[in-house]
Amino acid sequence: MSLMSEVGQKAFNLGVPLAVHMDVTYRCNERCVHCYLDHDDHGEMTTAEIKDVLDQLAEAGVFFITFSGGEVLMRRDFFEIVEYARRLMFNVKIKTNAVMIHEEEARRIRELGVDTIQISVYSHRPEVHDAITKLPHSFERTVKAIRFLREQGLRVTIANVLMTANSSDHSGVQELAAELGVHYTLDPTITPMMDGDTSILSLRIPGDELKEIFRNPTLVGNPEEFCAPPKPPSEEDLEGYSCSAGHSFCYISPYGDVFPCVQFPLPTGNIRQQKFLDIWNFSPQMKEVRSIQAKDLTVCSSCSHVSSCTRCPGLAYMEGSMRGPSTADCEKSFYRTGIPTANMLRQGLSKPRTMSGNTTPLVQIRPIAVPA
Amino acid sequence: MPETCIYIARSSAIAARALAGEMMVMNSADSTFFTLNEVATTIFQAADGRTPLREIVRDRVCEQFDIDPEQAQADAEQFVAELSGHGILLVSNQPLAPETP
User: Fold this and answer.
1) What does the pLDDT read at residue A365?
2) Helix/strand/coil for A68
């Protein structure tokens, strides 16, 4: 076990919020076709409020903070926020589309000691990237920004979200990342919109293409190992937890709402009304999330994939129950191994339904009403 | 001959946070990650650039941990050299201005 994993496990066991993802705004200068956010400003936290939250997070033991959005640089005070976070000695990561990063911004990011900048690039073909972001010349501006950041010696990761429009472009983006000297990650997950609209799920790549991705050694390492049939679950597996959401990780929205994860829209409290540690330690919702072990899962506890599935409790929650299956992850487990999941078998399916056909009512992220 | 004073200060490039009495430290320049034990954490937290290392060892380390002063000083100097090699601590024989991001 690496030192980092050991520390992560220690924080998990102690219930310390080691990492927080904070969206500082939902406003954005791009209009990506797959984006799940409402870009209007419904009352973002002020600079002073965010600084107060950062003070509270430092006191609570948070070490890693990821600033994301929306587009973080839509906030004029963004560098002031990062500077404040760095003075509190957080390890800071930034997620951005980078179109507003020029030489000056890149230099400032380096001076502030930011750890990593993750940038969304959808294709190596400008016309495909720009068609997804709906911002003309965004590819050119983003790639230029990556070069500015690299000139400053900063670590950059290209995040390549795969969907129908760019499903064949991952090799090209990987080559672009290599040419730019940056890391590359791929994510085939498209999530429902915050208002519950599932129409964007039709952008998810079809299962057969997922299967190809899972057998691509440049993406998964050793395909034999990655696609191996699941081992029978041990006692320890059944007593395990899904992920760090609510255990050592949480998400804070621009309106101060606290959730177990950015992909887990279960409201647990609002930082404008309560102290962060009161929400973290005493929220009944956080406690419930923390209580769920693999053996408690209604369908998945009897699934042969239970020990190796990437089941996301947030996506399961959006489908109706945080103890239920996450269909997107069932699909991944099936296309990775060829073995049907318990969720598919109970529905009499030999292969997953396409996600675009999912009309399950979804829970929505909405700002919690704050008294005036 | 008078003893050379060593002053130590935390680099502005690092991230740090205490977890259950131990300090996690990460250097953003190369993402090297360390955890410091309680004694090392005490020295790290006292690294204000103004207090000589010998004073930190005498007043903080020996006071709190009941360690032989000479041994503590030798260990502290080794620890400081190691962290300075990784860019975590700045070392000088003159007081250092604290670095801020």
Assistant:
1) 40
2) strand
Assign residue A6 a region: left if phi > 0, alpha if psi is -120 to 50, beta otherwise?
Answer: alpha
* Alpha helix (H) residue ranges in A88-226: 103-111, 126-133, 138-151, 170-180, 207-214, 217-220, 223-226
For the segment A195-219, what is each residue's pLDDT rounded down to a tens digit? Answer: 777 888 889 888 888 888 888 888 8
Find where tokens 């069932």 sit. Answer: A330
- Range 11-50 of B in CB contact (< 8 A) with A: 12-20, 24, 26, 28-29, 31, 33-35
Angle at B18 between CA B13 and CA B19, to 5 degrees: 130
Please tell me the predicted confidence (pLDDT) of residue A187: 86
Domain ranges of chain B: 9-90
* Interface touch B12/A113, C-beta < 8 Å: yes
Q: Which two tokens stand for residue B52?
A: 């000589």
Q: What phi and psi values does residue A198 have, to the nearest 5 degrees?
A: -100, 5
Taking only the tens place, the pLDDT of each residue in A273-304 is 999 999 999 999 999 999 999 999 999 999 99
Gap from A91 CA to chain B (nearest CA, Å): 5
B91–A contact, CB cutoff 8 A: no
Is B64 near chain A, with CB under 8 Å? no
Name the DSSP class of A352: P
Pairing state between β A183-187 and A155-161: parallel
How do strand B32-36 and strand A257-259 relate by DSSP bridges?
Answer: unpaired
Per-residue confidence band for B3, with pLDDT thresholds at 50, 70 and 90 = low
Choose among A155, A165, A160, A88: nearest CA to A128: A165
CA A173 from centroid of its chain's CA atoms: 20
Buried b (16+ CB within 10 A) or exposed e, B25-35: bbbbbeeeebb
Would you place residue B73 in the very low, low, confident or very high pLDDT band (cuts 50, 70, 90)? very high
Cβ atoms of A258 and A301 closer than 8 Å: no
Query: Which chain A residues in 109-128 lie under 8 Å from chain B, judged by CB atoms?
Result: 111-115
When CB atoms are compared, the residue of B13, B19, B100 closest to A61 is B19
- Look at residue A323 and give its three-state secondary structure: coil
CATH number corresponding to B9-90: 1.10.10
The residues of chain A scoring below 70 in pLDDT are 353-372
β-strands A249-252, A257-259: how paired? antiparallel
Contact status, residue B34 vs residue B25, Cβ threshold 8 Å: yes
Q: What share of chain B in percent tops pLDDT 70?
A: 96
